[in-house]
Specification:
The protein is about 40% helix and about 25% strand. The chain contains 13 helices and 14 strands. The chain has a nine-stranded mixed sheet, with helices on both faces. A five-stranded mixed sheet has the order 3-8-7-2-4.
């Protein structure tokens, strides 16, 4: 039996989340619905205009949200990332520890600036992110913990790492190590902008294929360079043994390697879509590593994601995860 269900890799980012009107994005020249990489000066400029708005600070990063979800559902998670020895880094390390996630991080962390993600939520619950990666951009093979990786059931990496010239080869190396050790590989495209602007890097990471791929409808269509989900699914099958396409309020499409399954959505009044895809991936991976079929895991993930969409922030409160799992099992 493996020590860890999930070995995650991703950017370690402290999320700073604010509710904003659409006019703010237009005035500030922010592209709605995308993750955009910015420098520290630009992020500071935006923050100066947001200090009067309601804000929430939390540990973040796409893959981190997923491995935290798995851990708080009762699974075991390891997370490889990079933060600095500043106050934000201390906060991030404490958040992982509180969730019971093992990590490569220690008290002796390098100088620098911990990455931050400015998340802007508009009245339609859409999330728009401007991210300053900080020291996270320097994530490399040096942060890999090979023993922990080999002792995991799944390697799970986020597509956001494709933007870094050191993190991308680290993910490629991790994928190779996982395949050699019989560890299943899972990957998320993370954001339409990653598929749109970093296609070659994603192809390098995916290589000959991954065991499980996560994406949303827009990412699937961009990857397949097509207009229909059916054609996109055909393209995804060429690079993934199984995959999940999340469809927002329409649920999800799950391919288990043999057949397609439509997953129904759970009714919810959307407040904040930030973290919904991360929760879906974390819940789905928890499900299939804890005896659920792909259909059961898809239904559980849809249910869990609806709970995140109905709250403000990318994660639930610690005690809510066990309640969500219990609520799903009671259905």
């Amino acid at each position: 039996m493996k020590k860890y269900d999930l070995y995650g890799m991703g950017n370690a980012l402290v999320d700073m989340e604010f509710e904003v009107p659409d006019a703010f994005l237009e005035t500030m020249g922010v592209e709605k619905g995308f993750m955009t990489l910015v420098d520290e000066g630009r992020q500071f400029e935006l923050l100066e205009f947001l200090r009067v708005e309601r804000g929430v600070r939390s540990g973040g990063g796409s893959a981190a949200n997923s491995v935290v979800a798995n851990a708080l559902f009762g699974g075991t998670s390891f997370y490889t990332c990079l933060v600095s020895n500043d106050e934000m880094g201390d906060f991030y390390v404490s958040e992982l520890a509180r969730a019971g996630v093992d990590t490569n991080l220690s008290d002796r962390r390098p100088d620098g600036v911990t990455g931050k993600c400015l998340v802007m939520i508009t009245p339609d619950a859409e999330r728009t992110m401007n991210t300053y990666l900080g020291i996270s951009e320097s994530l490399s093979e040096a942060q890999l913990c090979e023993d922990a990786l080999r002792d995991s059931e799944f390697l799970y990496a986020e597509g956001y790492l494709v933007t870094s010239p050191t993190a991308r080869p680290a993910v490629v190396r991790a994928m190779s190590l996982a395949r050699g050790a019989g560890v299943k590989t899972a990957f998320s495209f993370s954001d339409p902008s990653m598929v749109k602007y970093f296609r070659l890097g994603l192809e390098e990471i995916v290589g000959d294929g991954v065991d499980l791929l996560f994406c949303n409808r827009e990412e699937a269509l961009l990857w397949g360079d097509c207009r229909t989900l059916a054609k996109a699914a055909d393209q995804l099958r060429q690079r993934a043994g199984a995959f999940v396409v999340t469809l927002g309020g329409e649920g999800a499409l799950v391919y288990d390697g043999y057949a397609f399954h439509e997953i129904d959505p759970y009714p919810v009044t959307p407040i904040d879509t930030n973290g919904a895809g991360d929760m879906f991936a974390g819940a789905f991976l928890h499900g299939i590593t804890h005896g659920m079929t792909y259909v059961q895991a898809g239904n559980f993930a849809s249910y869990a994601a609806s709970k995140v969409v109905g709250t403000f922030g990318p994660r639930l409160k610690t005690g809510q995860y066990s309640q969500v799992l219990a609520g799903f099992r009671a259905m």
